[in-house]
Amino acid sequence: MRLSQVHVKFESCLIEDEPEARVCFSYKMSLEKRFRMLGIDHQHGRGREPERGADPGVSRRQRGGALPGPGQARVVRLGEPHFASAGLQGLETRGQRAGAALGGQDDWVEPGPNRAADSHLSARPGSKPRAYRRRRFPQRYTAADVELLAELDTAHETLSGPATQKILQREFHNFSDQRFQRLSGLSVAQLYRLRQSRVYRAKRVAYQHTRPTQIAIGERRKPDPQGRPGYLRVDTVHQGDQDGVKGLYHINAVDEVTQWQIVGATAQISEAWLIPVLEAMLSQFPFHIRGFHSDHGSEFINPTVARLLNKLLVEQTQSRPRHSNDNGLAETKNGWVIRKHIGYGHIASVHAERFDQFYRQHFNPYLNFHRPCGVPEVSVTAKGKQKRVYRWYATPWEILRQRPGLAGFLRPELTADQLQTAAAAQSDTQAAAKMQEVKRKLFAGLNRRRSA
């Protein structure tokens, strides 16, 4: 049976959820007459009658437009083999009902040509596809320019990008070297790209000589005195700046076991100023010095201090990163002793010698013979946490006197009886009052000099 003789007729069907309720939807679909396109009727548009002789499947704009020319579309009869081979799917293509405006029911308009498809089909049979070639920008800087840049970096030891760019500009503009004409306009980003090129790396080979291994000064670990006196914790306290003038520095050294404390003062923390103060401070301890622990400051971690401690056979250690308790004892004494008695105000470095004498004659004897300190008792909980309890308060001399084998810890020129005599020379309050009187005179002299 020929395709043109087929007559398909579908009555309007109502789609209902409940057939007996007689409730219809807003839309109904119908396929009427012979191979007309699918029409959708709207309930609000039923009263609108189409124009006489107009096809409802073609818009008014299409009806009023110009007819397609012979190069754009052609009219195909439904009985032609081309249409028959297309089947019913040809009804759903673009422009399928435009032929109805030409006056025939059985006419169909074939869509116009597709440029992409025509160009693809127009290729010659057996012809090879054209190879893909990536678009590249024209090369501006030649291999000679890259080698010249490598020579310049070799002479200047590879300066930074902006500095090298400035030299390239000066070579061409200031010194009229025509070799740098193109490189004078080189950007910093392109300069770094050229340094990564194969030509540059073949020309510019940077050698870094083996550096000699430096001797480590001070092992990073927490000292372990094992109940023996002589392991010091040392720290520096700066007495502020004023109008760009540095103040004096306090050197605070505390024994870990007995809390014996010696304080010194210096105008600067350079090697020439610090070494005499350290020697005088170490000589004021009544026992042998076995360990010297500080933070990572350069005032203590340097070859000069290392030679001094090696001469005294003192083990030098320094605090570990992220372990604030390694030097916590000295930090505590900084706040509760030095800052409490001296304060935070600026003191000029020219007064360092006067403060050092005050510490040696009055302040240090008061701290070690007449100022009680809390002695911690460390216990470990069931969860492994250390807990400190302070039940015993005693002066550093009393703590030292309780150490078994005291005679073996003291210096040869000192005895326990001499230390006891110095401790009993005056009471704690008398020693404190004497120290406060000298301190007031010391600060009064500072205030008179400031007012003058």
What's the short version?
By secondary structure, the chain is α/β, with parallel strands linked by helices. It has helices at residues 60-64, 81-86, 115-121, 143-156, 161-173, 188-195, 198-203, 271-284, 303-311, 328-342, 352-369, 396-401, 406-409, 416-423, 428-451; strands spanning 27-30, 39-42, 74-77, 107-110, 219-220, 231-238, 241-242, 245-246, 249-255, 261-266, 291-294, 315-318, 373-380, 386-394.
Which SSEs are present, and which pair or pack?
Blueprint: E1 27-30, E2 39-42, H1 60-64, E3 74-77, H2 81-86, E4 107-110, H3 115-121, H4 143-156, H5 161-173, H6 188-195, H7 198-203, E5 219-220, E6 231-238, E7 241-242, E8 245-246, E9 249-255, E10 261-266, H8 271-284, E11 291-294, H9 303-311, E12 315-318, H10 328-342, H11 352-369, E13 373-380, E14 386-394, H12 396-401, H13 406-409, H14 416-423, H15 428-451
Parallel strand pairs: 5-12, 6-11, 11-12
Antiparallel strand pairs: 1-2, 3-4, 6-9, 7-8, 9-10, 13-14
**What are the low-pLDDT stretches, counting only 5+ consecutive residues below 50?**
1-19, 21-47, 61-107
Tally of discrete structural domains: 3
Strand content: 15-25%
Task: Report strand order across the widest sheet.
Answer: 5-12-11-6-9-10
Number of strands: 14
The CATH homologous superfamily of the largest domain is called Ribonuclease H-like superfamily/Ribonuclease H
Radius of gyration based on Cα positions: 50 Å
For this entry, what is the oligomeric state of its chains?
Answer: single chain
What's the pLDDT, averaged over the residues?
A: 77
Q: How far is it from the N-terminal to the C-terminal residue, by CA?
A: 129 Å
The residue fraction in helices comes out at 25-40%
What's the tally of helices?
15
Q: Could you tell me the CATH topology label of the largest domain.
A: Nucleotidyltransferase, domain 5
| Main sheet attributes: strand count, strand direction, barrel closure | 6 strands, mixed
Order of secondary-structure elements: EEHEHEHHHHHEEEEEEHEHEHHEEHHHH
In the CATH hierarchy, the architecture of the largest domain is 2-Layer Sandwich
Shape: elongated
CATH class category label of the largest domain:
Alpha Beta
